[in-house]
Automatic annotation (TrEMBL):
<keyword id="KW-0436">Ligase</keyword>
<dbReference type="GO" id="GO:0003910">
    <property type="term" value="F:DNA ligase (ATP) activity"/>
</dbReference>
<keyword id="KW-0460">Magnesium</keyword>
<dbReference type="InterPro" id="IPR037493">
    <property type="entry name" value="ExoIII-like"/>
</dbReference>
<dbReference type="InterPro" id="IPR012340">
    <property type="entry name" value="NA-bd_OB-fold"/>
</dbReference>
<keyword id="KW-0239">DNA-directed DNA polymerase</keyword>
<feature type="compositionally biased region" description="Basic and acidic residues">
    <location>
        <begin position="268"/>
        <end position="286"/>
    </location>
</feature>
<feature type="region of interest" description="Disordered">
    <location>
        <begin position="267"/>
        <end position="286"/>
    </location>
</feature>
<dbReference type="InterPro" id="IPR012309">
    <property type="entry name" value="DNA_ligase_ATP-dep_C"/>
</dbReference>
<protein>
    <recommendedName>
        <fullName>DNA ligase (ATP)</fullName>
        <ecNumber>6.5.1.1</ecNumber>
    </recommendedName>
</protein>
<keyword id="KW-0269">Exonuclease</keyword>
<dbReference type="InterPro" id="IPR016059">
    <property type="entry name" value="DNA_ligase_ATP-dep_CS"/>
</dbReference>
<dbReference type="InterPro" id="IPR012310">
    <property type="entry name" value="DNA_ligase_ATP-dep_cent"/>
</dbReference>
<keyword id="KW-0540">Nuclease</keyword>
<dbReference type="InterPro" id="IPR014145">
    <property type="entry name" value="LigD_pol_dom"/>
</dbReference>
<dbReference type="InterPro" id="IPR005135">
    <property type="entry name" value="Endo/exonuclease/phosphatase"/>
</dbReference>
<dbReference type="InterPro" id="IPR014143">
    <property type="entry name" value="NHEJ_ligase_prk"/>
</dbReference>
C-alpha cells in the first residue's frame, strides 16, 4: 500500500498539478495540507473523477486539510480534542481506511519567533501529543501524516545556522516533536534513511530543489502496530520542478502485508552488482533498482552510427552556480567511440573516421557490449597534461601516452540514453565502463565552485574547463547553452589560406596566412602566425601545402600580408603563396585586435577532424546572460500555455468605454457623501491642497479617479493592493499599508495572505470604482496593484522593465526605452510603454498568467542585460544605489511576488500632479516629458486615444519559443 502526503499550497490553483501527480504516482491514500479552500469550493468532482473518495475540512485562508483514498473513507474526527482561543483554524482530520487510522495534520508554522503564534504552536503541539497518546493506547494501526512545520535535527536542514531563530527549528519545537516520537512512534523517513539529508520543502530560489537546499517538514509517524510493515519511503522531488507547483514535494511511504521493517532497510544501488552508484533520494526520475531497471524505462533504439557530438558554448568567464558540474577541457580530438557487434570505430565530430588510434579500437573490441561513447582523444606528456602537438605524431613520441577520456554515454545495448539527464547518464557510464585501464578512462566530473576550478586549471596550464548542467539532456549536433566552455587560453581553429616568406629567409616559410569564415560565408583574413613550428614541422607542412598551391587568392580582396603593425612597424618584404582553403589548424593567441587580427599567435597543430566550412571566429558569449537564458529555458520547458480568452489589442475608443460626463463632487463643501456602486462613501477635507504648488485639491483627486475609473479598474480588478497613503498631501508624511483586516468596509473584497514571516494579512482587492475611491479617501494618491490576480497569485499577468534614472535627462530614458523595444522586436515580443509619472518609464510585456514570478524575472533579466550591452555608458544593473554611480538602473527585480509599481492611469505624489500614462511607441522620442500628462489633461487625452494598454491583459507570449529565438539571434 502506498500512502502519501502533499502540502498542495492551494488546491484549486494547483489542481491540474495534483491530478497529474495522482495519475503518475498512483498512491492509495493521500493526505493534503494547506487547501486554502472553503468547504464548498473543494474540487470534489475532479478528485472523484480521478478515482478517489475524499473527506476535507476547508479554510478560506492558508489552512485546511483533506484525505483522499481509492477505497471507502470513514471520517472519525474533524479537529483535535481541546480548544484554543487564538488562531483557531482547521488543521487536523482523521479517518478509518483499510483498517488503518489515518490522521492528517497541518501543524502551525509559529513564525515569527518569539510571539503569540509560536506560543500557540506549542499549545497545539500539546493537544496533538495528548491525542497521539490516546491513539497509542488503542489496539489499532495508526499513522499521523502531514506538514509538522518542524525540522527535528540538524540533518533536516541544508543550513542549520540560517534557522536558529526560526519557529521551525527552535529547540522548543524540536523537543515537542521528539517527545511525541518517544511515545512509541516511528519516523518513517528518518528510520529508512538515518544519515541522509532528505528534504520535502524548498524555497522559491531558482533550482533550490535541484541543488537540494531544503528542509524536512513533512513526516510520517507510525505506531508500533503498523511500523513493522514499513518497506520504503521517498520524496517525489521532481514534482517540485513542474511549473507553478507548491514549495513542498509529495512524500510517500510503502507498506507491505507483513512485518518486514527489521529486514528491509535502505537499499543502495551500489549493493547491486549491476549498478555501482549511490542512490539519490528524490531524483528527477524514478529511483533505479539497478542498471536493468533504468534501461527498461528507456526507449529501444538502433545504434546511431551517424550521430554528431553535442557542442558547448564559449563564454567569457567562470561562474559559481548550483546545479552545474565541471570537467577539464581536454586539448585533443573530440571522438565518438562506437562499439557495434564487436567492431569498434572512432568518429570525429564531422563523422570522419579516426584510423590512427588503433589501440583504442582494439581495447573496445574486448568489451562484451554495444555502446556509443563521447569523449576526447589526447596525448599525455610526462607531466600528465594533454599535448596537442604530440597527439598528431603520438607513435613517434616515446614520452606521449595515448588516452581516450570518456565523459558521456549516448547509447547502450539497444537503449537510447540521450533523453535522460547527464547525472543519470554518468551513473550508467560509471557502471558499464571497464575500470583500471589507462588507455580508456572516465573523464572526472567535479562538483565544486566553477571559479575555483577554473583558477586551478589555469595554474596547471590546462586549456580551460567545461561546465555542464547536471540535468542536461544530450542534444546531438547542437551548440548547447547547457554545456559551456571557459578557456584559460585563447585558442581558435583557423583555415590556412597561404604562407609567406620574408626577404632573405632560408626557411620553407616565415608565417602562415590564416582565415575564418564570417557568418555570411565569406573567407576573412585574420592575420599571420609565425611561431610554433620547427624546421621538421615546416617540412611536414610543406608536403601538405604543395598540392594546394594556387595563383589565385582565396579572398575577395587580397590582403596585405606584409602590412606593418604596432608591434612590427617595418615591412619584412613578405610575399604570399596562396593555398586552396581546405586545411585547418589550431592557434593560440594573446588577443584579437580592433581591426580583427590575431596578435602573438602560435601554431599548435593541424585539425584533421574539422571541416573548413565550419571554421568561424568563435566569440565569447556573456556568461551571466547565458546562465539567465538557460535558467529560464529550463523552467519553461514543461509549461503548457493556458487557453485564456484573448483580450483585443485594438485601441478602445471613448465610445466603447464611457468616461463619466460629470464630476462626482461639485460643491465647495469640506465634506460630501455620495453613493458609488451602491455603497455610500464619505469624502472629507475636500478643499485640502494635496499638490500645493499646482493648487490641486483632494476634491480634484476624487473627481479624477471617478472619471478615469472605467479605464483604470480593469487593471486593478482581482489584484491585491498595496496602499501608499499620503493623508497630508504630497509633502506630508507617507506610509504603506497592506493589511486592511477589520479596517476595510464590509462590502470591500479582500484576499487573505500569509507572508514569508508567517504574518497573516488581508489585502484589499481593487474590484470597482467604490474601492478605488475608498483608497483615495485614505490619502492613496497613487494606486499600486500586484502584477498577479487573486486567482493566480503566483503567476503575473505581465513582466515589467522599469527604467529608473538618476542624473540622466529624460531623453536618455527614452533612448533606453527604444533599446528595450529593439531587443523585444527582434524576438517578436509585444510591449506596451507608459510613463512612470515620476522620472522614468515602465515597459510591460504580456504573460497571460502562464508563468511564475521567477520566470518573469529571469526573462526581464535577459532583456536588461542585452540593453545594458548596447548603452553601458549611462545604464547599470547594480541594485544598490550606492553602487550605481549616478547611472540609470535597468530594474528587472520588480518582477517578484508582492512587488508593486504605480499602476496605469495612476496619479503620482509629485509636483505637477503627473499621471502614469500609456503612450504609443511613436510618441517615445526626444521631447516627451513627464509633465505632458497631468491631472488636468489626462481625461481629455484618454477620450482622444482610448485605452492604449489593453494588450497588456491579452494572451501572453510563449516564453519557450521566445528564448529559443533570442538564443539564435543574440549569440
Amino acid at each position: 500500500m502506498k500512502i502519501a502526503t502533499y502540502n498542495i499550497n492551494g488546491i484549486n490553483g494547483r489542481l491540474e498539478i495534483l491530478l497529474r501527480w495522482l495519475k503518475e504516482a498512483q498512491p492509495d491514500i493521500v493526505c493534503l495540507q494547506e487547501l486554502k479552500s472553503e468547504d464548498h469550493k473543494f474540487p470534489e468532482k475532479a478528485i472523484k473523477d480521478a478515482g478517489y473518495q475524499a473527506i476535507w475540512h476547508g479554510q478560506k485562508s492558508w489552512n485546511g486539510v483533506a484525505i483522499l483514498s481509492r477505497t471507502e473513507i470513514r471520517e472519525l474526527r474533524r479537529d483535535l480534542p481541546g480548544e484554543d482561543e487564538e488562531f483557531t483554524h482547521s488543521r487536523y482530520i482523521e479517518a478509518f481506511i483499510n483498517d488503518l487510522v489515518i490522521g492528517c495534520l497541518y501543524l502551525p508554522n509559529g513564525n515569527p519567533y518569539p510571539g503569540p503564534k509560536f506560543d500557540y504552536k506549542l499549545r497545539w503541539f500539546e493537544r496533538l501529543s495528548d491525542h497521539a497518546q490516546d491513539l497509542i493506547n488503542r489496539n489499532l494501526p495508526v499513522i499521523l501524516i502531514g506538514d509538522y512545520n518542524v525540522m527535528p535535527t540538524e540533518l533536516d536542514t541544508y543550513k542549520p545556522e540560517k534557522y536558529l531563530n526560526n519557529a521551525l527549528f527552535r529547540p522548543e519545537s524540536r523537543k515537542a516533536y521528539q517527545e511525541l516520537v518517544d511515545q512509541g512512534w516511528t519516523d518513517a523517513i528518518r528510520t529508512l534513511y538515518p544519515d541522509e539529508r532528505i528534504y520535502t520543502f524548498w524555497d522559491y530560489l531558482r533550482d533550490a530543489y535541484g541543488r537540494n537546499a531544503g528542509l524536512r517538514l513533512d513526516h510520517f509517524l507510525l505506531n508500533k502496530k503498523i511500523a513493522p510493515s514499513l518497506v520504503a519511503a521517498d520524496v517525489d522531488k521532481y514534482v517540485r520542478g513542474w511549473p507553478g507547483t507548491s514549495d513542498h514535494a509529495p512524500v510517500w511511504i510503502e507498506l507491505s502485508e507483513g512485518e518486514v521493517l527489521e529486514t528491509k532497510r535502505k537499499k543502495n544501488i551500489a549493493e547491486d552488482p549491476e549498478m555501482k552508484s549511490e542512490k539519490r533520494v528524490g531524483s528527477q526520475r524514478p529511483e533505479p533498482k539497478g542498471l536493468k531497471a533504468i534501461l527498461n524505462t528507456l526507449p529501444e533504439s538502433p545504434i546511431p552510427l551517424d550521430i554528431k557530438p553535442m557542442k558547448a558554448t564559449l563564454v567569457n568567464e567562470p561562474f559559481d552556480e548550483p546545479g552545474w558540474i565541471y570537467e577539464i577541457k581536454w586539448d585533443g580530438y573530440r571522438a565518438l567511440g562506437i562499439l557495434n557487434d564487436g567492431k569498434a570505430t572512432l568518429m570525429s565530430r564531422n563523422n570522419l573516421e579516426f584510423g590512427q588510434f588503433g589501440p583504442i579500437n582494439e581495447l573496445m573490441e574486448t568489451w562484451e557490449m554495444s555502446v556509443v561513447l563521447d569523449g576526447e582523444i589526447v596525448a599525455l606528456n610526462e607531466q600528465g597534461t594533454a599535448d596537442f602537438g604530440a597527439l598528431q605524431n603520438w607513435r613517434n613520441k616515446k614520452s606521449a601516452l595515448l588516452a581516450y577520456y570518456v565523459f558521456d554515454i549516448l547509447w547502450y545495448n539497444g537503449r537510447d540514453l540521450t533523453g535522460i539527464p547527464l547525472n543519470e547518464r554518468r551513473e550508467i557510464l560509471d557502471a558499464v565502463l571497464p575500470k583500471d585501464n589507462e588507455l580508456i578512462r572516465p573523464s572526472q566530473m567535479f562538483e565544486v565552485g566553477g571559479i575555483e576550478f577554473f583558477e586551478a586549471a589555469k595554474r596547471m596550464g590546462l586549456e580551460g574547463i567545461i561546465a555542464k548542467r547536471a540535468d542536461s539532456l544530450y542534444t546531438a549536433d547542437a551548440r548547447s547553452r547547457e554545456w559551456l566552455k571557459i578557456k584559460a587560453k585563447h585558442r581558435q581553429e583557423v583555415i590556412i589560406a597561404g604562407f609567406t616568406r620574408n626577404e632573405g629567409t632560408v626557411k620553407n616559410f616565415s608565417a602562415l596566412a590564416i582565415a575564418v569564415y564570417d557568418r555570411k560565408g565569406s573567407l576573412r583574413y585574420i592575420g599571420k602566425v609565425g611561431t610554433g613550428f620547427n624546421m621538421a614541422k615546416q617540412k611536414e607542412l610543406m608536403k601538405l601545402f604543395e598540392p594546394l598551391i594556387t595563383a589565385e587568392s582565396p579572398f575577395e580582396v587580397e590582403p596585405d600580408v606584409d602590412e606593418p603593425s604596432q608591434f612590427r612597424p617595418r615591412r619584412m618584404g613578405a610575399k604570399a603563396t596562396w593555398l586552396k582553403p581546405v586545411l585547418v589548424c589550431e592557434v593560440e593567441f594573446a588577443e584579437i585586435t580592433n581591426d580583427g587580427k590575431v596578435r602573438q599567435a602560435s601554431f599548435k597543430g593541424m585539425r584533421i577532424d574539422k571541416d573548413p566550412k565550419d571554421v568561424i571566429l568563435e566569440s565569447e558569449a556573456d556568461t551571466d546572460l547565458v546562465l539567465a537564458e538557460d535558467d529560464l529555458k529550463a523552467t519553461v520547458n514543461n509549461v503548457k500555455p493556458k487557453k485564456t480568452k484573448q483580450v483585443s489589442n485594438k485601441v478602445s475608443k471613448s465610445e466603447a468605454v464611457k468616461i463619466p460626463p460629470h464630476q462626482l463632487l461639485t460643491s465647495r463643501n469640506e465634506t460630501e457623501e455620495k453613493k458609488v456602486d451602491g455603497h455610500l462613501l464619505k469624502f472629507t477635507h475636500l478643499n485640502k491642497l494635496y499638490w500645493p504648488e499646482d493648487k490641486v485639491t483632494k476634491r480634484d483627486m476624487f473627481n479624477y479617479y471617478h472619471q478615469v475609473a472605467p479605464f483604470m479598474v480593469p487593471y486593478l480588478r482581482d489584484r491585491p493592493m498595496s496602499l501608499n497613503r499620503y493623508p497630508g498631501g504630497i509633502h506630508g508624511e507617507s506610509f504603506y499599508q497592506k493589511n486592511v483586516k477589520d479596517k476595510a468596509p464590509d462590502w470591500a473584497e479582500t484576499m487573505p495572505h500569509t507572508n514569508v514571516e508567517g504574518e497573516q494579512k488581508d489585502y484589499l482587492l481593487g474590484n470597482n470604482e467604490a474601492t478605488l475611491l475608498w483608497m483615495a479617501s485614505l490619502g492613496c494618491i497613487e494606486m499600486n496593484p500586484w502584477f498577479s490576480r487573486v486567482g493566480s497569485p503566483d503567476n503575473p499577468d505581465y513582466c515589467v522593465i522599469d527604467l529608473d534614472p538618476d542624473k540622466q535627462h529624460f531623453d536618455q530614458v527614452i533612448q533606453a526605452a527604444v533599446e528595450v523595444k529593439k531587443v523585444l522586436d527582434a524576438i517578436d515580443v509585444p510591449s506596451y510603454p507608459k510613463t512612470s509619472g515620476s522620472t522614468g518609464m515602465h515597459i510591460y510585456i504580456p504573460l497571460g498568467a502562464q508563468y511564475t514570478y521567477d520566470q518573469s524575472q529571469l526573462f526581464a533579466n535577459i532583456i536588461v542585460k542585452l540593453v545594458h550591452k548596447q548603452i553601458p555608458d549611462f545604464t547599470t544593473l547594480e541594485r544598490m544605489i550606492s553602487n550605481r554611480k549616478g547611472k540609470m538602473y535597468l530594474d528587472f527585480l520588480q518582477n517578484r511576488p508582492g512587488a508593486t509599481i504605480a499602476g496605469v492611469y495612476s496619479l503620482r505624489p509629485k509636483p505637477g500632479a503627473t499621471v502614469s500614462m500609456p503612450v504609443t511607441w511613436d510618441e517615445v522620442k526626444p521631447g516627451l516629458t513627464m509633465r505632458d500628462f497631468t491631472i488636468h489633461n489626462a481625461i481629455g487625452r484618454i477620450k482622444e486615444t482610448g485605452d492604449l494598454f489593453t494588450g497588456v491583459l491579452g494572451i501572453g507570449i510563449d516564453l519557450a519559443k521566445t528564448i529559443k529565438k533570442a538564443q539564435s539571434i543574440f549569440k
